[in-house]
# Entry
Amino acid sequence: KQEVTQIPAALSVPEGENLVLNCSFTDSAIYNLQWFRQDPGKGLTSLLLIQSSQREQTSGRLNASLDKSSGRSTLYIAASQPGDSATYLCAVSWITGANSKLTFGKGITLSVRP
Amino acid sequence: NAGVTQTPKFRILKIGQSMTLQCTQDMNHNYMYWYRQDPGMGLKLIYYSVGAGITDKGEVPNGYNVSRSTTEDFPLRLELAAPSQTSVYFCASSYLQREAYNEQFFGPGTRLTVL
# Structure
């Protein structure tokens, strides 16, 4: 079964720390992987999309990497700020799926302490 | 562009009632999706559409129906509401050129409670 796992479910760090959020997936035959941010009571905001042929993508203080062979992606957040506090979800689109359906992990709830 | 909009934001239903969740996108996206999110869980796909007049089931379609008569609109219908349908519902859209580039954009969600 194609699954996406995000561990731990919650993370608390002090402001200014560099941190890594992990995502693992069970099948390496992917089209792409997306990282989303979700604020409490809000919708999902797309942060980064990594295509199957790419190793990483960067946007500001965010860097996402992809290692298909090991079934892993990481989201690196540099110099974390209290405003980064949110839930971060990883989602995968698989080649053996159909029509770009995304399978989501359960998310990591990040709290950045001032 | 407003992006993906959803109405209503909140709704309380009684068991057995019906309702339609509205979703509209103004980005001329061909693909649209409905997900539900339960507390502490990731999102699960209910239905999706690859274009006007074409819909297909996702992972958890039971108890729901959809239609896609225009590119912009993708309503989700609950015919006989049950407590198990208490959830937050998200609509999303994307423009598929190649699968690898298919980035999905989400609406703000509808929070539904069935009592």
